[in-house]
Amino acid sequence: MATARKPTNPTSANGHAANGGTTNGGLATDDAIQIDSHLGGPEHRTLAEDVLDGLTRPFKELPPKHFYDARGAELFDRICELPEYYPTRTERGILDATAAEIATLTGAVELVELGSGTAAKTRVLLDALHRAGTLERYVPVDVTESMVRDCADELTLEYPGLRVHGVIGDFERHLDRVPPADGPRLVVFLGGTIGNFPPGSRRRFLRQIADLLGPRDHLLMGTDLVKDAGVLKDAYDDQQGVTAEFNRNVLHVLNRELDADFDPGDFDHVALFDDRHEWVEMRLRARREHTVTVGALELDVHFDAGEEMRTEISAKFTRPRLESDLDAAGLQLVRWLTDPEDLFALTLSRPSA
Ligand code: AVJ
Fold it and tell me: Is the per-residue pLDDT at 266 higher than 60?
């Protein structure tokens, strides 16, 4: 496929196409693109609220969503290339092997992607739907404005006739802003990110996703699977220390955004598999007793030597547990798609009859 270069994209300030209605022989112009932004600053408030809440708990905790500033996104991309981190390439292999079947089963006219990022893996699905002749619209939902805009520009060039309706927002808060379906819809949530939700919120979030689905629509979700604890630990504690840097990056985010004075060098990276909960946990462990100030919150936070702060859970699934989570959200499994080693699964599901 031709790699399209990014043209300038003159969308107006409110994010709506400035020149809607005209066509241009299938060329990518702004009438193929509509972008709505739902981020008007309150992003900082959720960070401040999360930090105040998380750092004043008896067992300190920070939610993983704040890892992903520009540096965090770059470190995560490097994680995806690590020999120890199998999920990305495994999911990609499953998609390569099954995209055509997914296209046939869903007959989807539109693809809605939660946490679309650079949409690297999405192209496999877009290709399959394009080849099946059904693809009309792509709806990426992502907090990073530049990612949504760049991929809208690129994809409208790569797929002549494709419309892109981007939603810049937090998929945990703005799912109700996803435009109404134009025809059979495929919602995709890849990468295993559902694993970041603890079990109760996971089911609540799956129910919100289910609300985006009509009777002919489908959800395609990627989930990492339970496996040997050593393999899991290595995937989250790599030799090169990239995951450790990614983990500590959240402290840089707090320093910059909330005027905190963390010294990331005061914390060790910890990764472990909790086999009772069937999740990987990442923590930051204080090397010495010290107190950190979070200026924007007028908050002093004391750490004991060896105290651990949880920064991420990444749930690992079994088929029965996933089916019961789907069932609780009003969804039923249509296809269970895995790699030959059963490392990772893609599940295709639809609203229960
Ligand atoms: C992007 C949430 C799927 O849980 O494996 C990678 C994030 N954390 N290495 C995961 C992550 C440490 C990743 N997800």
Answer: yes
Query: How deeply is 220 buried, as exposed, middle or buried, from its count of CB atoms within 10 A (0-12, 13-18, 19+)?
Result: buried
> Do residues 79 and 243 touch, judged by C-beta distance below 8 A?
yes
**Could you say which DSSP state residue 342 is in?**
-
- pTM of model > 0.70: yes
| Contact of 96 with 246, CB cutoff 8 Å | no
User: Which residue ranges have their beta carbon within 6 Å of ligand 1?
Assistant: 79, 87, 191-193, 195-196, 236, 243, 312, 314
Q: Is the pLDDT of residue 21 over 60?
A: no
Which tokens is 74 given?
């770059």
Sheet with 267-274, side-by-side order of all strands: 267-274, 279-286, 308-315
CA of 250 to the centre of ligand 1 (A): 14
| Tokens standing for residue 16 | 């709506």
User: DSSP for 274-330?
Assistant: ETTTTEEEEEEEESS-EEEEEGGGTEEEEE-TT-EEEEEEEE-B-HHHHHHHHHHTT
Alpha-carbon gap, residue 244 to 239, rounded angstroms = 10
Residues in CB range of 99: below 8 A, 6 or more apart: 124, 125, 127, 128
Amino acid in position 195: G
Which is the closest atom of ligand 1 to the Cα of 235?
Answer: 9
* Ligand 1 geometric centre to CA of 315 (Å): 10
CB 213, CB 351: distance < 8 Å: yes
pLDDT tier at 31, thresholds 50, 70, 90: confident
The DSSP code sequence of 202-255 is HHHHHHHHHTT--TT-EEEEEEEB---HHHHHHHTS-TT-HHHHHHHHHHHHHH
- Classified as helix, coil or strand, 17 is strand
